[in-house]
Structures are given as structure tokens and as C-alpha cells.
Amino acid sequence: MEYNVKDLSLADQGKKQIEWAEMHMPALISIRQQLSSSQAFKGIRISAVLHVTKETAALVRTLKAAGADIYLAGSNPLSTQDDVAAALVKYDGIHVFAWKGESETDYYNNMNEILKYEPNVVMDDGGDLHALIHEKYRNIKLFGGTEETTTGVIRLKAMEEQGVLLYPVIAVNNAFTKYLFDNRVGTGQSAIDGILRATNILIAGKVAVVVGYGWVGRGIASRLRGMGARVIVVEVSPLRALEALMDGFDVMPMKDAAKIGDLFVTATGNINVISKDHILLMKNGAILANAGHFNVEIDVKGLKEIAKNIRTIRPYTEEYELPNGNKVYLLADGRLVNLAAAEGHPSEVMDLSFSNQALSVDYIVKNHLSIEKRVYNVPLDIDEQVAFLKLKGMGIEIETMTEEQKEYIKQWKYGT
């Protein structure tokens, strides 16, 4: 079997990690039982670029149990959990091409590797795999694909608008059960977990600047405030800026926030939202972290150009001495702090996202002959099924409407 991982001897520990994740992912396990009993993906090849974590392991083991042949590469050079990668190869027969600390060349080589096998379905986290297919592998006959992130969906929407999208894609990121919980609750907790593991700072009393008030930014801002930080939001959207203000946060431009912040967290999906000019305004001891998918939100290149001296202080914490003598601290080289410096989202949250992924792949396989080459949202019935399974797994019952109530909301004649 072809694979490329760091160390197969780590497999036993990885197996335990996967078992721990699956214990906290009841919705996905229920879907596994459903898909495996019908062998829904028998004969299907799936190539996936995802963060190779214990939670992702639960997803690809579900696809494997349903009969698929899986080729997996990492979606970030620093996010792979090497023990999990080893376990997937040794115990599950999954072709993994990923290790923590890949170079950029390794990253793209591994992506090329998983496309050699001409998949029927692709799964992506960030859009790099989709982009590579459109650049180099246009002859692969794909049923369709999925996309996990806001960043990736933006890229795919651009392809659709320009008329170049080669196959249908389901935007898993746009499911209610994804962005309401994964983006907001999951990143809200895991980004702070990564910051604390890298720095061990006290959040309470700090001035924290959150750049971007989308679902990720909302989650981070609310949890930083819950831990005692004084939170400032930087936004370009008047609607989101107004929402942040009404949620009780200060709102200001980065040029003003840069002067007073102690901790900066980016969550925009855009480039250089913290520029080297902003960094030069920062006070001594400022900490910079990124919670967006790609390492472009903080101008790391510009920071390295202006730094008088650079040294590693702690794992995932680098000190940059600025020309004025102030020192700022960059976490995880500007990459996703929750996955580079910690373990990513809690399994309970990824249970929702990866349940959507599994059912979206099932939808593509069943409907690929009839769906068009465009970006689709997750069908509402799948979204609601995932929510129901999650509640059931948590032992929660919800109310049901009576027949009278069902009829009442269908009519228009009766009011007060």
C-alpha cells in the first residue's frame, strides 16, 4: 500500500486518539452504521485534503467502512497529528501522505500524489486541492467534491462566477450545523487553546483585538470576553461592525487598535489584515495569532524584513525585535494557531461538520448524474438530520408540532 507518513511506530498511540475522538462523535458513528450497511461507496475512490487529526480519522474511517478507497493529504503543513496518520495507515488501510512540518514543496507533492489515482470524489479544506485540479488535472472525470472552509468556498464561488468550475461542489462550510458550531463554538475555543498552549499568558485584563467578525471572529471575541479580556473588533463590513458594537465590543480601525492591543487574532480569510506598518505601531510584548485558514492574514514576510533580531522563545512562539526596540511575538509562524499549536476543534464540534461531509459525499455519489457544475449548499434535510442525530447522541429530546399546528402554519386566512 502506498503512503508517506513520519513514523509508523506511532500507530498504537494514534489508535487510542482516534478511539477517544469517536467516543465523542455519536452523530458520525450513527451515519457510519447507516452507510456501511449499504456499502454506499463501494468502488468509489475519494481523495481528500483535510487536517489529519483524530477527528478527521473518524470521518475517513466512516468513508472506508462504507466501501470507499481513501487517499488523504494534509491541508496545512503544521496540522497533521503524526500518530493519527500512522494509525490510519497501519490499522485502516488508508493511503495517507502527510506529516507535521511539511515544506511547501512537500505539501503540494502530497496533493499531487493523491490525485494520481483519479478519484471519483474530492474533499477539500481551503480550496487548494480544487485549485490544483483546475490547473493540472482537468481530465479527471469527477462526480463532484466538497469544501470545508469559508476561504475555500469563496475561491470556488469565484470559479463558478467565471464559468470555469469543472464539477459540482457542496459547500459544507455553509451548513447551519457547520458555521454556527464549528466556526463559532469550535474555533472560539480551540484558537484560544492554541494561544494558551503557545504562551501560557493570562487572558483576563488583556486588550484583545479580533480582526474580522464573521462566525469565527464572533466565537473568538465572545470567548475572549468570557475569560476577562477587553475586546476590540476590527471590521470592514458596516453590518458586521454594527453587530459587534451592539454585541458590546469596541470597534475601530486597525491603525488605532494596533497601538493599544496586547493580543491580536486574525479571522478574515484575507491578506495582510495586519501589515508591517500596523506591527510597527504595536507596543512592546504584543502577541500575534492567526485563526484564518491560510498564513497570509499577518504580513509575516514584512515582519521578517523589518525585524532586527528573531529568536524562538517557546514552541510555536517566536520573538521579533522591531527597529524601535519593541518586541512582538508571532505564534505558529502565522499559521492556524488552533491546529499548529494545539489539536484543533474538540471532537464534539467536528462530529457535526464531518457528519455533513459524509452525507454530502453520499448525496454527490447518488446524484452526480443530475446535478450541475456549480457550488451547492448542504441540502436542508441533511443539515437537520445532522442536528437531530447530534441531539439524540447527547440525550436531548425536542418538541414536535401537533397536526393542528402543522396545518396552522400552512394557512393564511386566520390571524388574531
From TrEMBL:
It is an enzyme of class 3 (hydrolase). Its EC number is 3.13.2.1. InterPro entries: Adenosylhomocyst_ase-like_sf, Adenosylhomocysteinase-like, Ado_hCys_hydrolase_NAD-bd, NAD(P)-bd_dom_sf, S-Ado-L-homoCys_hydrolase_CS. PROSITE patterns: ADOHCYASE_1, ADOHCYASE_2. NAD(+) binds at residues 149-151, 183, 212-219, 235, 270, 291-293, 338, 345. It catalyses: S-adenosyl-L-homocysteine + H2O = L-homocysteine + adenosine. Gene3D superfamilies: Adenosylhomocysteinase-like (3.40.50.1480), NAD(P)-binding Rossmann-like Domain (3.40.50.720). It is found in: Cytoplasm. Its cofactor is NAD(+). Keywords: Cytoplasm, Hydrolase, NAD, One-carbon metabolism. GO terms for cellular component: cytosol. It holds the Pfam family AdoHcyase. This is Adenosylhomocysteinase. The lineage of its organism: Archaea, Thermoproteota, Thermoprotei, Sulfolobales, Sulfolobaceae.
